[in-house]
Amino acid sequence: MGVVVVGSANMDVVTRVPRIPGPGETLLALSFARGGGGKGANQAVAAARAGGAQTVFVGALGRDADGDALREGLADAGVDTGVISVSDAPTGTALISVAEDGENAIVVVGGANADFTELSGEQRERVGQADVLLAQLEIAPEVVLAAAQARSEGATFVLNAAPSAPLSEQMWAEVDVLVVNEHEAADLAESLGAPDRDLDAAVDRLAERVSALVVTLGGKGCLVLQDRRRTQVPAVRVTPVDTTGAGDTFVGVLGARLALGDDLVEAARWGSVAAALAVQRPGAQDGVPHADEVRAAR
Ligand code: ATP
Question: Which ranges carry the Carbohydrate kinase PfkB domain (predicted)?
């Protein structure tokens, strides 16, 4: 049936500031913007905009104006919003300050995402129909594990282990494709007892635990490991404007392409072309390109 994305949704409230304020300091912002965010919702938008793969978002929103706006944004992108939980907690919010030198500071209010502690019957049912189940770690790991266990036998579970957190043995046993950036790779390898943060050693350590691994390397592209084969997929050379959501665009498109039948290397190629377009635009969901743009850029 396509991709089911289980994860977080946030309203991103972004201020551009001359510098990150220190303790007790008050600053005037240079600009202010609101937009859809949260790794789960971002990846759902990216998967839907990749075209061709039906995309369902499973997550939680508050009973408030931000929740309505996020639901509308997802639906506009072509995401099926029919089984999103409605929470008494406020919609998740990320308060993001970006300084002129590119430094940022982020405060996340978990809200409805933190209140999302179990899957409903209809959410479980939709997960059971997925070809690809895609999840991240911005919601309770118990929900991610329950979704992985509710997928059908032939379905592929892609875990984007972000933000960094050690995985339980039960979770390791479920993961089909692990996607991490360099820092998350080193953190996860450390949690498995790696003696240092060397990337090659981390990759080897992680590859022992999963059948397929993708390590994203920012402007250097990504590394795909499957069946003992390592493939380096180069990034597309561009001048980045805002790298927010690059990783989410990459992962969402990768999930959609896997659901359409691509192999992992081909799916990663699509993901990197889409992410290179996303870094040239501001915003998380706002920066996610459409399928025709990605096709034209390939
Ligand atoms: P995020 O900044 O969204 O948290 P991330 O750390 O999860 O991102 P990255 O490894 O930075 O993930 O980027 C994911 C993918 O996006 C890369 O593998 C690459 O294909 C693409 N990408 C990221 N930065 C650039 C860039 N400067 N130029 C071209 N492509 C990029």
Answer: 3-290
| Distance in angstroms (rounded) separating the CA atoms of residues 209 and 172 | 7
Q: How far is CA 184 from CA 161, 164, 217, in A?
A: 7, 5, 11
Which residues form ligand 1's pocket by a CB distance below 6 Å?
Answer: 162, 181, 216-219, 221-222, 235-236, 238, 240, 243-248, 250, 272, 275-276, 279
The domains of the chain, with CATH numbers, are: 3-9+38-92+112-297 (3.40.1190.20)
Say what angle helices 246-259 and 39-49 make with each other, to 10 degrees.
50
Is residue 99 within 8 A of residue 71, CB to CB? The reply is no
Report helix angle 65-77 to 39-49, nearest 10. 30
Structure confidence by residue, pLDDT tens digits, 280-291: 998 889 889 999
Residue identifier of the C-alpha nearest atom 4 of ligand 1 = 247
Mean per-residue pLDDT, 63-75: 98
Structure tokens, 291:
């399928």
Residue 101: pLDDT band with limits 50, 70, 90: confident
242 is in an annotated binding site: yes
ipTM of the complex model: 0.98
